[in-house]
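Bumping with the actual sequence this time:
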Amino acid sequence: MIDDPRARDGGSRLTKNRKAWVFALIAVLLLSVAAAGLAWLPVQFEIEQVADISVTPVNSTTMPASTVPPSTVPPSAGPPQVIDLTSSGDTLDSDADPALCETLPTFLIADDDSQSIAVLFGCGTQDAPEFNATVFRLIEAGDDPVKGSLLGLLAGPTAREQGSGVSSFFSADTARALESVTLSAGALVVDFNDGIYVNNANTSTGSVFFKAELLANVFQYPEVETVEFQIDGSCELWAGYFESQQCQVVSRADWDSQQASWSADTPAGG
């Protein structure tokens, strides 16, 4: 075989070209890997930053309180609201300021199953009966309001009302003293049991205030024209409690005349 130097040179150049292509391919691959690595770094950094953020769950305790004002009921929508219905037998400080009675609740809301009734009391120490403290109670819609006012009176003022200056002979001790209330053609008969007996209620001064509380509460109702009080069904027992020998029926005219007499005898501002 003839040795051709040109053939050897051609083979050598082919080998060198292949090596160059291989090195170039490797370089391209290395550059690609490097570029991908550099591109991944900020993404990884961002993921790590997000992973470090804490999220506080939202629940009812973290939500801000509503700023919407509560609904209000206009005075024309119903009678006054009672604050405290619990009677108390605590006695009232005799030095209570009558002006405090002006703080009594004056708005009561009755629903379809109830009705509001007024109970009249005195306020502080008085020279003559004056019922300038009106409080309210709720009774069932079908109940007799006259009886309701008497029951409210006999239970006495609540602790809160006493703290406002309300005074009365009646308390939790007399709350069960009422036996019956009967109204017929304007004539009211109120029967009590022996729970009506109260210390000092039958003295000369005490009896005036004691009876006046009862009369004021029944005569607030225009349908009542006269009233007779009894104990255990006997007007004689009632009269005897006050050391009287005869039963007495009090008319509205009698009550109006008595109030006018007290007003005339009471000094201005007294």
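The tokens above came from a reply further down the thread. Confidence is low (pLDDT under 50) at residues 41-98.
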